[in-house]
Amino acid sequence: MSQELQKAPVIRKAVLFPLLLIPMFLGGMDTTLFNSIAYDLPVLTDSWRLWFIDGYSIALASSVVLGSRLGARIGPGVTLSAGLFVFAIAGASPALLDSPLSWTVARFVQGFGYALMVSSVASVIGGLPQTRERTLAYSLWIAAGSIGAGAGPLLGRIAIDFNAISLLFWTPAAAALTCGVSAWLLLQKIHLGHASSTNLDVTSSVLAFLGFGLLIAGLQSHVGILLRVLAAALGCGLLALFWQRQRRSQDPLIDVGMLSYSRLGICALAIVFGYACYTGSIYLFSANSHSLWSILPVSIMALWVSFGGFAFSKLHTRFTPVRLLQLSLGLCAAGLVLAAFVGLWVAAVLIGLGVGAASAAGDSYLLGSVSPKDVARAAAVQETSFAVGAALGVAGFGGIFAGTNSVVVTALTTALIVAVIAWTFRYNRGVITA
């Protein structure tokens, strides 16, 4: 058994895998659950519903790497338990609260809990001693998250139809609490001997949190245009400070040097905009969905994401990396256009396939284009890109929809943005491989 798991008790995979994958199911479900029913939650109004959804992703994006450093310092088993406890308490809090501010604060806290969960699960899976076990665990991880994301809109609509909104808070919290107790009892002795760093760099984490939060505020807020511009400008300024701090650091949270456009920036962009299409589409197309039947294509779209990842495994030998990334985002853009003029059933297939292929391609090329010693830093870029995309999708789609009050205009505008990003990939001159 590998050094990472030598100090851990022997745990059967039939026990270990559920402890890792149930949290990923819960997190995947939570990513889409409230996107799809935000307009049916009476506590939330105007921009509060956007903040309630995006608070989760903002906290995740700004603290997922911090979570991995905590896991390296105190052990991923302890970090996973702590993340599950935070996720459970914060997730249940809205059932006892009745103001949009308190709901939104709870979502920020829950997003931090999910960041601890994601980083811990990744660390434990990465520490499995056999390649076959790691491959199986990663595949099951993706499947668990996708199934959870697909179940989110369906469960949300069922709860709304049966006037059982409180169950959406209590049930996942109970499952997370049960997993947290089990993880504490079984996994707390796992330590990662291969961890590259335990540096927390809280200052950089705070800069990322405030900068990204203010940028999102500029995109989605319902206040006057001047305040939105000021918020976005201040957010960009704080993110610039974060960027410079990371460039000068000998042990950065995010290796921003990897993000040059000629190197791995194109992979990160594909993940960000691909996943933004996913979360943004769920929010947008749920705005006019008021029945189980009308929300069904939104749920099915989440399942098509898994097929998109499978399609990448079959197509990556037939296309160059840049061409495949362009094709993936092109499918997302085409799906948004079809959603505007044809309907969501067909559009959901293209958007799901495009998102799945873009995510799988960006992930594979990002991790496959670096040396073994840089894989951990590339993984940090990957995880952060997914979280950034999740937040930008809701903020971008939601902000445009709030300004235009038109699903068609929002879909066409975002399709144009995604198409332009895909077109710029042709200027990439780097060498990327799977």
Structural description of this entry:
The protein is mostly helical. Helix content is 76%, strand content 0%. It starts with 12 loop residues before the first helix and ends in a 10-residue tail after the last helix.
Order of helices and strands: HHHHHHHHHHHHHH
Terminal CA distance reads 28 Å
* Extended strand count: 0
Largest sheet: none
Structural class: mainly alpha
Summarize the amount of helix as a percent range: over 70%
Estimated radius of gyration: 20 Å
Shape: globular
Number of helical runs? 14
Task: Say what oligomer this is.
Answer: single chain
Low-confidence stretches: 1-9
Strand fraction band? under 5%
Overall average residue pLDDT? 84
Task: Briefly characterize the structure.
The chain has 434 residues and is mainly alpha-helical. The chain has helices spanning 13-37, 47-74, 76-92, 100-126, 131-161, 167-187, 202-220, 225-248, 265-286, 292-315, 321-341, 344-368, 375-404, 407-424.
Chart the SSEs and their pairings.
Layout (H helix, E strand, L loop, with lengths): L12 H25 L9 H28 L1 H17 L7 H27 L4 H31 L5 H21 L14 H19 L4 H24 L16 H22 L5 H24 L5 H21 L2 H25 L6 H30 L2 H18 L10
